[in-house]
Design a protein that fits this description.
Blueprint: H1 17-20, E1 24-28, H2 36-46, E2 50-52, E3 56-59, E4 62-71, E5 74-75, E6 78-80, E7 86-89
Parallel strand pairs: 1-7
Antiparallel strand pairs: 1-4, 2-6, 3-4, 4-5
Length: about 90
C-alpha cells in the first residue's frame, strides 16, 4: 500500500494528531463474545495509537482486526485514534 522497498532511506516527521485523527474505525472479531464493558476498555486502550488497515490487535485475549478506517468520508490505510474517533465493532 505504501510502495516501500527495503534498505532505502525514508523521511519521518512528526505530525499533529488532529491532522491524522480518524473519524471512524471498524473492528471485526470472529467467534468471540464481547460485552459493552469490553468494548469500552478496548476503545480506551486504543486512544492515541496509530492503526493501519488489516492490523491484528489483541486485548485481554480478545483478537480483533481493523477492517475499515475512515477519515473525512473516505477510507484510508492508516491513522490515529483520538477522543473524537468512533469505534464500530462487527
Amino acid at each position: 500500500a505504501f510502495t516501500l522497498t527495503g534498505l532505502r532511506e525514508v523521511l519521518v516527521r512528526r505530525v499533529d494528531q488532529r491532522v491524522v485523527a480518524l473519524d471512524l474505525v471498524e473492528l471485526s472479531l470472529k467467534d468471540q463474545y464481547i460485552t459493552r464493558s469490553d468494548m469500552w476498555r478496548i476503545t480506551c486502550s486504543l486512544l492515541g495509537r496509530c492503526l493501519y488497515s488489516g492490523q491484528h490487535l489483541e486485548h485481554c485475549s480478545m483478537r480483533l482486526q481493523t477492517h475499515c478506517l475512515w477519515y473525512q468520508g473516505d477510507t484510508v490505510t492508516s491513522g490515529a485514534i483520538a477522543n473524537t474517533t468512533r469505534v464500530r465493532y462487527s
